[in-house]
Specification:
The protein has 393 residues and is of the alpha/beta class. The longest helix has 27 residues. The model has no long low-confidence stretch (mean pLDDT 95). Bound molecules: pyridoxal-5'-phosphate.
C-alpha cells in the first residue's frame, strides 16, 4: 500500500488560471475582430539585456571546449554569482558574506523549499491577499495556517500588533497582488515582533527592483535586527527579465539561529542534499545581469513598466476610485464596481472594454471583490486600457 501525502487533497483545485484562460479564449473566439488589452499577466515582456546575451554566448562556448568545460558545480552557487549578489546588496547598504547567499532556480522554488527547515507543527502566518505559494506549500506540508488579512482600513499593509503567535511568517513587499510596500518603520515592527517571539520571517523581495519611494526598503536586512530573524528570497525574474531563464537567490544570515540550530548551516545541508545547483551558463548570465552594465539595461525596462503604473494610476484617480499600488510594484489593486465579485467585474471589463484583469479570488478568499491590474502590458495597450477604463468606471 502507498502512503500518499494526504494534505495534497486539501489544496484548492488548480482551476483558477485555467478558468481565466478559458474565459479569455472563449471571448476571443466569439469576438475575433476585437483587440484585447491584457492587463492580467504577471510576466515581463521585454527581452534580456545585451550584456546578458553576451555572457550566455561566452558561457555556452566555454562549455564546448575541453579546456573551459564545467561539470557539476557547488550546489549553493558559483562564487562569482554569490559575490555579484553580495555586491548588489551593498548598493542598499546591506553587508552580506557570499556564504550567506544561496543561488537558486528562482524564488518560487525556494519559497516552498524553505519550509523544510521547520517542523511539521510550525504555525505559519500568511499576510493575504498573497502569492498562492505561501499557503499552498504550507498546506502540502500539513501546517496550521493563520491568515492575516489586508483590508482597505489597513491599506493592505497589516501590521503584527494584536496578533496570535506564529513560528514562520511570509511577508511580500513590494506586494503581489496589491502593489503595496511596507515602509521602513512598518517593516521594523515585523522584525521586532519576530525577534520578540523567536519567529522567522520569510521575506519575498521579488519586486524590490520596482521600488521608487525612498522610505521603502529593498531588503529586510536594511533594518536593525533583521539578520537575527529573516530569510530573504528573491530572483532575477522581475529584476532582470529572467522569468524564462530561472535564476534566483536566497539569503540565510549566519546570525539566524533557532533552537540552537544555525539556519544557514541547515539550508546548506538541505540544498546540498536535495539539489545539484544551477547551470553554469545561467549563473554567468546572472552575474552579467547584476553587473553595472546589466543593471543599467534592466532599469530601462523597469522604467517602462513603472510608467505604465503611472498611466493606470492616473486613470483610476481620474475615475475617483480607491486603489493601491502602481508605484513601488508593477500591480494595481482595486475594489470591484458595485461590490461585485472579482470574477463578475472581470467579465464586465472584458465585455465592455475588452480589458483582461486578474480576479482577486486568485490570491485567497480575502481577494474576493477586488481585481489586479498588471503594468507588464505594452505601452500602447496600457494607454488604450487607461482610456477604455474611464469609459467603464
Ligand atoms: N514571489 C512573488 C510575489 C511573485 O509574484 C512571483 C512570480 O510572479 C514569484 C515569487 C516567483 O518568482 P520566480 O520567477 O523567481 O520563481
Amino acid at each position: 500500500m502507498s502512503r500518499i501525502n494526504p494534505f495534497y487533497g486539501q489544496l484548492p483545485p488548480a482551476f483558477f488560471f485555467t478558468r481565466l484562460n478559458d474565459a479569455v479564449a472563449a471571448y476571443v473566439a466569439a469576438h475575433p475582430d476585437q483587440r484585447l488589452l491584457r492587463l492580467g499577466v504577471g510576466d515581463v515582456t521585454g527581452p534580456l539585456a545585451p550584456p546578458v546575451i553576451e555572457a550566455l554566448r561566452r558561457a555556452v562556448s566555454e562549455q564546448g571546449k575541453a579546456a573551459t568545460f564545467h561539470g557539476y558545480l557547488p550546489e549553493v552557487g558559483l562564487d562569482c554569482m554569490r559575490t555579484a549578489v553580495a555586491a548588489y546588496y551593498a548598493r542598499f547598504g546591506v553587508n552580506l558574506s557570499p556564504e550567506e547567499i544561496f543561488v537558486s532556480s528562482g524564488a518560487a522554488d525556494d519559497l516552498g523549499a524553505v519550509g523544510n527547515l521547520f517542523s511539521s507543527d510550525a504555525r505559519v502566518l500568511v499576510v493575504e491577499p498573497a502569492y498562492p505559494a505561501y499557503v499552498d506549500t504550507s498546506r502540502m506540508a500539513g501546517r496550521e495556517i493563520v491568515h492575516l488579512c489586508g483590508t482597505q482600513q489597513n491599506g493592505f499593509l497589516p501590521l503584527p500588533e494584536a496578533h496570535p503567535d506564529a513560528d514562520l511568517v511570509y511577508l511580500c513587499s513590494p506586494n503581489n497582488p496589491t502593489g503595496t510596500a511596507y515602509t521602513r518603520s512598518q517593516l521594523q515592527q515585523w522584525v521586532d515582533w519576530a525577534n520578540e517571539r523567536q519567529a522567522v520571517i520569510v521575506f519575498d523581495a521579488a519586486y524590490e527592483a520596482f521600488i521608487q519611494d525612498g522610505d521603502v526598503p529593498h531588503s529586510i536586512y536594511e533594518l536593525p535586527g533583521a539578520k537575527d530573524c529573516a530569510i530573504e528570497i528573491c530572483s532575477l525574474s522581475k529584476t532582470a527579465g529572467f522569468t524564462g531563464m530561472r535564476l534566483g537567490y536566497t539569503v540565510v544570515p549566519k546570525a539566524l539561529v533557532r533552537d540552537g540550530f544555525s539556519l544557514r548551516d541547515m539550508w546548506t545541508q538541505d540544498r546540498t542534499t536535495r539539489t545539484n545547483g544551477v547551470s553554469y551558463v545561467l549563473q554567468r548570465a546572472g552575474e552579467a545581469a547584476l553587473s553595472p552594465a546589466g543593471l543599467r539595461y534592466s532599469r530601462e525596462s523597469i522604467a517602462v513598466y513603472q510608467e505604465n503604473g503611472r498611466i493606470l494610476s492616473e486613470a483610476l484617480r481620474a475615475a475617483g476610485l480607491w486603489f493601491t499600488g502602481g508605484r513601488n510594484a508593477p500591480y494595481l489593486w482595486l475594489p470591484c464596481l458595485g461590490g461585485q465579485s472579482g470574477w463578475a467585474f472581470f467579465e464586465q471589463l472584458l465585455g465592455q472594454a475588452q480589458i483582461v484583469v486578474t480576479p482577486g479570488e486568485g490570491f485567497g478568499e480575502v481577494g474576493t471583490g477586488y481585481v489586479r491590474l498588471s503594468c507588464f502590458g505594452s505601452r500602447g495597450d496600457t494607454e488604450e486600457a487607461a482610456r477604455r477604463l474611464l469609459t467603464v468606471l
